[in-house]
TrEMBL record, chains A, B:
Name the UniProt record assigns to this protein: CRP/FNR family transcriptional regulator
GO CC terms, sorted: cytosol
A GO term for molecular function: DNA binding
Annotated ranges, domain Cyclic nucleotide-binding: 28-111
Domain of life: Bacteria
Gene3D superfamilies: Jelly Rolls, Winged helix-like DNA-binding domain superfamily/Winged helix DNA-binding domain
Domain annotation HTH crp-type: ranges: 162-235
InterPro entries: cNMP-bd_dom, cNMP-bd_dom_sf, Env_Response_Regulators, HTH_CRP, RmlC-like_jellyroll, Tscrpt_reg_HTH_Crp-type_CS, WH-like_DNA-bd_sf, WH_DNA-bd_sf
DNA sequence: TCCAATTCTTGATCTATATCAGCAAGTGAA
DNA sequence: TTCACTTGCTGATATAGATCAAGAATTGGA
């Protein structure tokens, strides 16, 4: 609560540290005229880093901003009536979280940092106003929301139709694509979430995630060392996932 | 193809038949000034009815419009690489289909009529332009997309965490809420989709859907007569579903 | 209205994955 | 460093729901 409501800017030292990085270009990847970039920058607030486990916002809280992840990772989740957590998404740098709150004006999920995480806060009412003046910004917003719908529907296919092997392979390749898009290695990366969180997200028991990964390693598909993952046989992994996933296979922006 | 690309207006006879129904108010439920309603009406095209089984658009086809269902029902689906159909949603009257096409400028799914169905075609580029001039329209669009994201995430929870009973109960209550919202009975309605389609959508085998419904009937929760469903014990059904579903429980618009 | 094709239902089995259990390996606080 | 706690791995067993099979009920076309 305290955290997500604190809109304080950083101290001048930290602010200046970020000033000449084209922040908004990162947050909302889009080609804008310089003056528009400035206008966008003016409404964006840098927040203090979240420590692992801290909430960015929580389920039911009033919606007023979307957030762009700068560094670190977030998860969003629901608490179901039976008290268990259901993870609905993981958010890596450059990804936008909070869009689901627009409709009801309340966040329908909570967002929690999986590691030390920094975000930009973008007050939605300002963003919406600005989008009236900058058509390409409005279009980009529509696109981002459309992509989210598309991605979520792929996730529905995964949950409804795929077996444990396909789920885990899809998950790892999806992360791989997201890292690659950001300019990081597509074949070697660190999982910021636990096995339990992966299982929760994929609709699998922890033990199943563990077993599948071990078997993938045994079969030379990947190399696992705790949270460090290397994809060894990308072709075979892609074969497992199948050429499906309309949304996921196309590289964005 | 032919169908989804034909933007021909109806003959004058049909057009006049619809002219004095406030069409846009139905398509995009929103309070607009009269002049704005007219502007919206001008960009909306009524299409000839689709017969059962006809495609409104298909996976991969270029995106140019979203569609509001007027009467009947649609399903959207992917064809997976293994050739099977995966249904990603059902669309009842007043609901908007096609939003997932904005991002890539191609529909990532196909949309097929489950029965004779009429839709309004809303060319998205026009809608987007108009939304610049009518802020409340833009906001409504953001809300609709946000709600879709929210609903899809509830669906992910359903697919990932719920058992067969909970899935079927959730499905029936979700339909019930949607009918109620439109002014129809929340307790007695007709399923326009087959058991097979329900199972496909819920990640269950046809047989399981059949068995669960039979058991629900035996236990006095519902009454089933082919495609006619009556919800007898609403309280018990809601208990089955659980008080979860942030998005679904709140009545919209 | 009749026949063929589809859809639905019900029962019998099978299986992928959950659950249970116990141990190993990290991780963090004092 | 040690201890308590969490996270991860692996084997044994249980089970929800899939699959297989066959008959019943609908549906739709001629």
């Amino acid at each position: 609560m305290a955290i997500s409501n604190s809109n304080n800017r950083f101290s001048s030292k930290l602010t200046s540290q970020y000033q000449n990085c084209s922040l908004s270009a990162l947050c909302l990847p889009i080609a804008l005229a310089d003056e528009d970039v400035n206008r966008l920058d003016q409404i964006i607030e840098r927040k203090r880093p979240l420590k692992k486990g801290e909430l960015l916002f929580h389920q039911g809280e009033e919606f007023d901003s979307v957030f762009a992840v700068r560094t670190g990772t977030l998860k969003t989740f629901n608490i179901t009536n039976s008290g268990e957590e259901q993870i609905t998404g993981f958010y890596c740098p450059s990804e936008l979280v909070g869009l689901s709150g627009i409709d009801e004006n309340h966040y329908p999920v909570s967002a929690k940092a999986l590691e030390t995480t920094t975000v930009c806060e973008i007050p939605f009412s300002h963003l919406e106003q600005l989008s009236s003046q900058i058509p390409s910004l409005k279009h980009q917003l529509f696109r981002l929301m459309s992509r989210k719908i598309c991605d979520d529907q792929q996730m529905m296919v995964l949950l409804g139709k795929k077996n444990a092997d396909e789920k885990v392979a899809s998950f790892l390749l999806n992360l791989s694509h997201r890292f690659k898009k950001r300019g990081y290695s597509a074949t070697a990366f660190r999982l910021s979430m636990s096995r339990g969180e992966i299982g929760n997200y994929l609709g699998l028991a922890v033990e199943t995630v563990s077993r599948v990964m071990t078997r993938f390693q045994k079969n030379g598909l990947i190399d696992v060392d705790g949270k460090e993952i290397s994809i060894i046989d990308m072709a075979e992994m892609e074969k497992l996932v199948g050429a499906s996933s309309e949304c996921a296979t196309i590289e964005h922006v």
